């Protein structure tokens, strides 16, 4: 892990967006930031530590900051830093789970955090490599520098630059705390020596003086065991095996200098020289001014092409030890020699990527020096059946791995994060989005690390105008899934921010669903205000919310008995939700008063049909008593006349009911004690008999105007049977 990533601390600023707004109709601003929020969650969250919970907020804050500065490279780096910090805190807080894996779920969560961190490091390193191209390279003077030849080629070959970034990333993530500890432990077995095979040399000296039979080699050539077909002393044999494995482990994490140093300290100078022979030739003296008195040492191997060809043959010499062949295979780019020592999918990817880089560099130099080489030297690489037609290519590496690896490696290769990393490396954003969506569909349990990383990578690509490279609907579905994940975890203060990242046409639908999950009106009002600051169309959101609240209603056409009753039925839970939605509409709608009025009419029709008169009364109370066409927006006045008449009709109906209850029907026994009670009862009865025919006459008139013959016939039948007497009494 790079020191900058390991050491940088991320500052967390806690605040709270709890200041009440003076008005619900504020000028829209973009000053609000996730940094001004405290994640308010009453739910027990299955995260490793509190720091992981804070990670959701830090991701949002880093994204918001980058929108202001437009410094997206720093955003990617900050995401990696935040994730690394969270990983470190988790590893420190839960050392037993981290080191032993005994707490299964906890250790799994820590591992997912590490993979999430590693994925950010990949994206950060890849972007740096692709974007930061050296532009000040001098022109290559013939015969002066293989290094400059390769660097010039890198400028025009983004595929090779990406491969080098991936190689560096795979080396960095391997060098974790555990790997370093294992290496340190292994190196304690090696003792500093002036010469290798010390015990064998000591025996040779003793046997020469004592004339003893000798089963061991008789010279110190590094290939003496093969030439003489004799063995080393057992101790030397074991020490050499240990050294080769340690050297390979150091090369696996890019520590070439340490590998050469340990070879020299244990007497294996030939192996240190062999590692140095892989370096690219460069003579700086060609590029100095004539007035310079400094003479620079020549670097690298001028005969690297011939040396690579020798390594290519040695790497598959089965007489050599396993890790010796692997070292040679790494240096010359022969994948067959590396595969036997690969234990994980990441090892396979590193091996294939490293071999691709070595093969590509070798091919570049062969082409550059083609006129200097003999036909024999050129044959393996440049012939019709040579390396040119069989060398690895970056896009095909992943297919090569799947085609030739064991089952457990193949299973590891198709894990979600590995697949996402693959498409990031290949810059195949369309397949990246589809793979993310596929994982979200096939996994019933939401994976916080996967969702966090995938959603923010998608947001990054979307913000960077890469949307032409993928389906926008896929992006919407991924981000919507993340928003639902935040809602599920009750990270409410982050929801509106991410809703604002959706295309405008999709924001209102998701905002309405979010509001529907909130249990009380105070929360709804709070997040409506927050949504307003993010320029979410809360008018449309409220109308969708209101429409959702009536989705389960049915209009009963046979409800004749209830509609003529003066007794109001009780409101149920869904009725109260509709009234709450209407209250929000009348409170927050900035320009759509007519829509609130139409929603009120709609629910009042249902309330009237179900004899829920209290619901109508509450609905009426949310509007001005003297509402008329002049308070409606100018462009809606003409079409709103019928809506206002309907609304006022509900008020008149309720007033009529209350009048009947107060006037035509006694509700107390006060009048029974009065002297004129008998005459009063006779007069009230006569009025009731007159009132019903008058009402029927009005109904006849209405039905005739609207040509509803069936309703006219039903009214005649109703008035002519015994139910008429029920109404009178």
TrEMBL record:
PANTHER family: NUCLEAR PORE COMPLEX PROTEIN NUP107, NUP107-RELATED. This is Nuclear pore complex protein. Part of the nuclear pore complex (NPC). One of its GO terms (biological process) is post-transcriptional tethering of RNA polymerase II gene DNA at nuclear periphery. Pfam families: Nup84_Nup100 (PF04121). Functions as a component of the nuclear pore complex (NPC). Keywords: Membrane, mRNA transport, Nuclear pore complex, Nucleus, Protein transport, Translocation, Transport.
């Amino acid at each position: 892990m790079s020191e900058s990533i390991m050491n940088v601390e991320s500052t967390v600023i806690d605040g709270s967006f709890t200041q009440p707004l003076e008005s619900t109709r504020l000028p829209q601003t973009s000053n609000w930031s996730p940094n001004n929020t405290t994640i308010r969650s009453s739910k027990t969250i299955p995260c490793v530590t509190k720091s992981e919970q804070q990670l959701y907020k830090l991701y949002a804050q880093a994204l918001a900051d980058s929108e202001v500065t437009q410094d997206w490279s720093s955003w990617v780096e900050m995401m990696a830093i935040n994730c690394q910090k969270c990983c470190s805190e988790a590893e420190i807080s839960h050392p037993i789970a981290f080191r032993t894996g005994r707490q299964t779920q906890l250790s799994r969560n820590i591992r997912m955090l590490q993979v999430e961190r590693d994925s950010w490091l990949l994206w950060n390193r890849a972007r740096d490599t692709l974007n930061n191209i050296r532009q000040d390279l001098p022109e290559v003077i013939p015969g002066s520098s293989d290094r400059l030849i390769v660097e010039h080629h890198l400028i025009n070959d983004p595929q090779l630059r990406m491969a080098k970034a991936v190689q560096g990333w795979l080396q960095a993530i391997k060098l974790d705390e555990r790997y370093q500890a294992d290496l340190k432990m292994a190196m304690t077995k090696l003792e500093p020596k002036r010469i290798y095979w010390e015990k064998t040399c000591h025996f040779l000296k003793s046997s020469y003086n004592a004339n003893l039979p000798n089963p061991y080699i008789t010279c110190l050539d590094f290939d003496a065991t093969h030439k003489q077909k004799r063995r080393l002393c057992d101790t030397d044999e074991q020490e050499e095996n240990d050294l080769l494995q340690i050297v390979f482990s150091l090369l696996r994490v890019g520590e070439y200098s340490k590998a050469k140093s340990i070879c020299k300290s244990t007497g294996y100078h030939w192996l240190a020289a062999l590692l140095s022979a892989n370096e690219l030739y460069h003579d700086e003296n060609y590029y100095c001014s004539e007035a310079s008195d400094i003479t620079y040492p020549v670097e690298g191997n001028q005969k690297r092409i011939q040396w690579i060809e020798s390594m290519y043959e040695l790497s598959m010499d089965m007489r050599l030890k396993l890790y010796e062949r692997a070292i040679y295979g790494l240096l010359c780019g022969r994948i067959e020699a590396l595969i036997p020592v690969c234990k994980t999918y990441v090892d396979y990817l590193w091996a294939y990527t490293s071999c691709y880089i070595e093969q590509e560099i070798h091919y570049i130099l062969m082409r550059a020096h083609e006129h200097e080489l003999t036909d024999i030297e050129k044959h393996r690489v440049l012939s019709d059946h040579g390396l040119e037609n069989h060398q690895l290519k970056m896009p095909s590496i992943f297919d090569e791995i799947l085609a030739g690896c064991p089952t457990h490696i193949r299973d590891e290769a198709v894990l979600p994060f590995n697949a996402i990393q693959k498409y990031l490396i290949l810059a195949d954003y369309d397949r990246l989005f589809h793979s993310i969506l596929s994982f979200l569909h096939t996994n019933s349990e939401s994976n916080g690390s996967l969702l966090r990383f995938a959603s923010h990578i998608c947001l990054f690509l979307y913000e960077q105008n890469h949307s032409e490279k993928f389906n926008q609907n896929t992006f919407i579905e991924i981000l919507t899934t993340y928003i639902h994940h935040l809602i599920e975890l009750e990270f409410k203060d982050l929801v509106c921010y991410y809703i604002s990242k959706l295309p405008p046409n999709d924001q209102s639908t998701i905002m309405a669903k979010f509001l529907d999950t909130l249990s009380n009106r105070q929360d709804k009002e709070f997040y409506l205000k927050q949504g307003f600051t993010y320029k979410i169309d809360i008018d449309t959101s409220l109308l969708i919310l209101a429409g959702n609240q009536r989705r389960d209603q049915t209009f009963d056409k046979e409800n004749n008995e209830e509609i003529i009753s003066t007794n109001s039925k009780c409101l149920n839970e869904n009725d109260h939700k509709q009234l709450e939605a209407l209250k929000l509409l009348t409170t927050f709608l900035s320009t759509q008063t007519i829509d609130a009025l139409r929603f009120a009419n709609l629910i009042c029709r249902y309330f009237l049909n179900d004899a829920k008169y209290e619901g109508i009364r509450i609905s009426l109370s949310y509007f001005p008593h003297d509402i008329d066409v002049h308070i409606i927006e100018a462009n809606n006045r003409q079409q709103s006349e019928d809506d206002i008449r309907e609304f006022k009709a509900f008020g008149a109906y309720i007033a009529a009911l209350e009048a009947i209850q107060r006037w035509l029907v006694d509700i107390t026994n006060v009048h029974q004690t009065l002297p004129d009670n008998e005459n009063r009862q006779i007069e009230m009865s006569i009025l009731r008999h007159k009132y019903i025919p008058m009402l029927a006459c009005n109904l006849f008139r209405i039905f005739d105007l609207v040509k509803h013959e069936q309703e006219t016939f039903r009214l005649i039948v109703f008035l002519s049977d015994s139910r008429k007497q029920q109404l009178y009494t």
